[in-house]
Amino acid sequence: MLNLTIDAERCIGCGQCASDCPAQIITMENSLPAIAAELEQFCIDCRHCVVICSEEALTISGYRPEAAMVLAEAPLPRPEQLEALIKGRRSVRNYQQRNVDPALIDRLLAVAAHAPSGHNDRELLFTVVDDKGILFDLREEAIAGLEKRLAANDLPAGMEMFADIVAAWRSEGRDILFRGAPHLLLVSALAESASPLQDCLIALTTFELYAVSCGLGTLWNGLAMLTISELVPSLQSRLGIPIDHQLGYVMGFGLPAVRYQRCVDRGLPRVQRVR
Ligand SMILES: Cc1cc2nc3c(=O)[nH]c(=O)nc-3n(C[C@H](O)[C@H](O)[C@H](O)COP(=O)(O)O)c2cc1C
Predict the structure, then answer these.
(1) How far apart are CA 175 and CA 73, in angstroms?
(2) Is the CB of 48 within 6 Å of ligand 1?
(3) Cβ(222) – ligand 1 distance below 6 Å
(4) Closest residue to atom 20 of ligand 1, CA basis
(5) Could you identify the atom of ligand 1 that is nearest to the CA of residue 90?
(6) Is 136 near ligand 1, meaning CB less than 6 Å away?
(7) Is 169 in contact with 177 (CB distance < 8 Å)?
(8) In the chain, which end has fewer C-beta atoms inside a 10 angstrom radius, N or C?
(9) What domains can you pick out in the chain, each with its CATH number?
(10) For ligand 1, is residue 223 a contact (CB within 6 Å)?
């Protein structure tokens, strides 16, 4: 039951809720919005109808308009600020060895959860290592798992570099695997959702940009991804990734111990125009 409620005193019958509904299930009956019972199943819970209403006349599934941030009052970044954020973001491989404030991590995750998802499925799980001591233990487990594979001589072709990664950690304490990040974020999605991989990557991209705006550094971590998803898959259950989830990617983050002075000039993108 969607339980669409309309405050008839407030509704001005503009029909924006109906015309903006992606599922096109809202109709105007006597100038008031309505959803036929048999169409309710097609609602994707996007709540466009609630937040487009200038009169705050509509609630759906118990969701009230006053529950969320008012956009007209929110200071949006200017384009040049967003440009500096995007161009200034770099992969950080040097971190301060202390935990990020847990309240900030909670905020980053809550914001990242606003990333779009296919069919608005939002079947994501954010798995966070929010304590550097736990990441230390995890690194030990990962390295031990890689060592086992090395000892059994069964590293897949093309992954020989993992021998160097293990050696660097064991002999010099050089952490190529996690690059010294105190925290890790893994985003997975229900494999049966509409677009699990895309949803994970968009959520991580959103997380990353917001994290950088909050003064943190991040690293898309392909080596950790390969380790967890392929080389030492037992790590997935250790991390609590559900069996019916697809792991999207792995990102390290933390307070950076480096500061970049400039953006780099990437030159012009390769573009083709269709005529
Ligand atoms: C999907 C993906 C996987 C990556 N994996 C790693 C990794 O395992 N280790 C690492 O040090 N950097 C990794 N990187 C970082 C890239 O090397 C980096 O993004 C690229 O060199 C551009 O530098 P920038 O991010 O500082 O602009 C990865 C980046 C992406 C997008």
Answers:
(1) 45
(2) no
(3) yes
(4) 91
(5) 26
(6) no
(7) yes
(8) C
(9) 5-71 (3.30.70.20), 79-254 (3.40.109.10)
(10) yes
Please tell me the total number of residues recorded for the chain in this structure. 275
Q: Does the C-beta of 90 come closer than 6 Å to ligand 1? A: yes
- Cβ atoms within 10 Å of 107's Cβ, excluding its own: 14
Give me ligand 1 centre to Cα 218, in Å: 10
Pocket perturbation via mutation, ligand 1, pick of 95, 221, 262 by most ligand atoms within 8 A of CB: 221
Residue 141 CA to residue 139 CA, distance in Å, equals 5
CB 179 less than 6 A from any atom of ligand 1? yes
pLDDT tens, N- to C-terminus, the chain (275 residues): 899 999 999 999 999 999 999 999 999 999 999 999 999 999 999 999 999 999 999 999 999 999 888 998 888 999 999 999 999 999 999 999 999 999 999 999 999 999 999 999 999 999 999 999 999 999 999 999 999 999 999 999 999 999 999 999 999 999 999 999 999 999 999 999 999 999 999 999 999 999 999 999 999 999 999 999 999 999 999 999 999 999 999 999 999 999 999 999 999 999 999 99
